[in-house]
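Subject: design request, 360 residues
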């Protein structure tokens, strides 16, 4: 019997793509599928999105796996290439590259390429992680053009630091800085991530890069995907493998981290930190079972977690438990755990069985 299982709804991913596209007047979208599509299975997700204008991943190896799986749409390397050999592979496999650093520019100048590449220059508008400062852009663009190794116009990307906070003026400052730095160039401009797309619609520019929203998850801890008319793609479940009578004042699990105030029944679920659930969970972190939520109690162990089913429950060994998804928004679970949904889905381990619907 399969216990830990991530059910991935490929119809939901198609619907979310359509929804985001419609909300933005059918302007182009880059589907961000780095990190194995945030733990949803990048190849299956990419195949479910034949209309995506472009995909984006963080690293070359991720893009090569997609190419080997027969994904032929454009793929953008969000961090570009880290040496000349990688650049040559990017050219061979027709990957769009980002140039955010001087060494990447020097590699483009020095290495012979089999195909011209599509180049995006990264502008640092205030994230201060990657990118050239606005005053450097004209020199960088001139040098890129002189290489004669590029396809079309040089494009421009930047990244928001606070777009999930609708009241934060930082986002408008970043939009203004990006516009000033790039407005004299004809190439495509892209600054919006999911939060930019959902909360700052004028940030869409020529093409937006959407990751988390595609998976039906809100980029904001104050919302859920359904607030944006999105459908959760992943439902994570496991099973009850034991139900035990538990006396008041008795502890449960490692370190006796929790004691029951009353007589109750403890349910044991086959899902632990070895499957990717955080080990330290605040009291009252919920799971969903048989139409209600119950709290996780005690420390999560490698293969199991314990929940307080209450004294009057009707649950049976073998019943399905939802850890997040259709009935229990991942945004609520993440907030309770002091993290963000991105970290929860991407940290699921290979022990969690992935089941895709519709099946092929
Ligand atoms: C991951 C990433 C995105 C997607 O962000 P979401 O919040 O998931 O939409 C967009 N742009 C860059 C540069 C990224 O690294």
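Subject: RE: design request

Done. Sequence follows.
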């Amino acid at each position: 019997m399969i216990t830990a299982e991530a059910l991935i709804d490929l119809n939901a991913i198609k619907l979310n793509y359509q929804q985001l596209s419609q909300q933005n007047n059918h302007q182009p979208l880059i589907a961000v599928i780095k990190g194995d599509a945030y733990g949803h299975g990048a190849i299956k997700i990419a195949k479910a999105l034949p209309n995506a204008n472009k995909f984006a991943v963080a690293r070359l190896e991720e893009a090569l796996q997609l190419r080997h799986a027969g994904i032929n749409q454009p793929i953008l390397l969000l961090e570009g290439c880290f040496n000349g050999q990688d650049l040559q592979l990017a050219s061979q496999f027709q990957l769009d590259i980002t140039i955010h650093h001087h060494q990447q520019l020097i590699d483009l100048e020095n290495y012979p390429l089999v195909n011209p590449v599509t180049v995006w220059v990264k502008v640092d508008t205030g994230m201060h992680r990657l990118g050239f400062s606005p005053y450097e852009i004209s020199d960088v663009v001139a040098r890129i053009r002189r290489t004669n190794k590029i396809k079309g116009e040089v494009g421009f990307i930047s990244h928001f630091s606070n777009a999930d906070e609708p009241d934060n003026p930082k986002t408008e400052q970043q939009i203004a800085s990006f516009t000033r730095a790039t407005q004299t160039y004809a190439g495509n401009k892209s600054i919006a991530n999911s939060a930019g797309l959902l909360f700052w619609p004028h940030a869409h520019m020529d093409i937006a890069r959407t990751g988390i929203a595609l998976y039906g998850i809100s980029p904001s801890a104050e919302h859920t995907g359904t607030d944006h008319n999105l459908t959760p793609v992943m439902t994570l479940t496991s099973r009850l493998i034991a139900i035990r009578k538990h006396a008041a004042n008795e502890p449960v699990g490692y370190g006796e981290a929790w004691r029951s105030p009353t007589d109750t029944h403890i349910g044991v679920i086959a899902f632990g930190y070895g499957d990717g659930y955080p080990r330290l969970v605040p009291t009252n972190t919920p799971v969903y079972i048989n139409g209600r939520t119950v709290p996780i109690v005690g420390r999560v162990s490698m293969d199991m977690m314990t929940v307080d089913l209450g004294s009057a429950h009707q649950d049976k060994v073998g019943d399905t438990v939802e850890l997040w998804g259709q009935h229990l928004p991942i945004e609520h679970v993440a907030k309770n755990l002091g993290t963000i949904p991105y970290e929860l889905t991407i940290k699921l381990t290979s022990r969690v069985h992935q089941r895709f619907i519709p099946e092929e």
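Residues 10-23 form the longest helix (14 residues).
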